[in-house]
Every structure is written in C-alpha cells, then in structure tokens.
Specification:
mainly beta; five-stranded antiparallel sheet
Length: 117
C-alpha cells in the first residue's frame, strides 16, 4: 500500500490573515492547482476584479464570504461551493472581519499562472 506523502488538517494551525490574505499551495499537478486561502476582512477592490483564463472551483470551509459575479452577489457559508468559469469577472465583496474565512480553491486547466509562481 502506498502511503500519502503529506496529510494534514486545513482548519488547524491557521496563519494570521488580519494583515492580508494568506495563500498556501497544497497540490500542483499538470492542469490542476489546489490552494488554501485564509482571509479575514479582505475584499477585492471594485476597480481590480479578477478575470482568470482558467476555471476555478471553491469550497468555503469556515467563516463567511460574499462574491460578486455575473450581476449577482453570492453569499457563502461553510460547506458552500462556487464554480467560477474561465473569463468570468468576479470579486470578493465580504469576508468575516472577526474570524478567519478559509477557502479551498481548485484551479483547473491553469495556463495563465505567472512564471516562477
């Protein structure tokens, strides 16, 4: 039997995100990157929305968040998922300022990642 190279709990030993979001890469394979994002009160500036050339699927693990996309604002609670298709303009409009908001983000068919990243 093959043993896992790494195991862990995504909700323990959280980094302090009060001063800025913390991105932790968990797994990278051709065409797929999985990361944990810890936010605490951060939002995307209205004049700097995201628009990625790849699909992204997120699962909110803890906290609370809202994401604006496709003309709607979507509230996310723990257990909620959101699929963000390639090319979709979106931005985070709320993350809980009083406790960590923990996301699991899966980036699919990512080819727009900066070199050396």
């Amino acid at each position: 039997m093959t043993r896992p190279a790494h195991t862990g709990n995504l909700l323990t030993d959280l980094p302090d995100a009060a001063a800025g979001e913390v991105f932790t890469e968990l797994l990278v394979r051709p065409g797929c990157r999985i990361e944990r994002i810890v936010s605490q009160g951060q939002v995307t500036p209205p004049d700097m929305p995201y628009q990625q050339a790849h699909d992204e699927w997120v699962l909110l693990l803890a906290g609370a968040a809202r994401v604006a996309m496709a003309g709607a604002e979507i509230a996310l609670s723990p257990g909620d998922t959101l699929f963000i298709p390639a090319g979709c303009v979106h931005r985070v409009t709320f993350t809980d300022p009083d406790r960590p908001t923990v996301w699991l983000a899966v980036h699919l068919s990512e080819t727009d990642r900066p070199a050396g990243d």
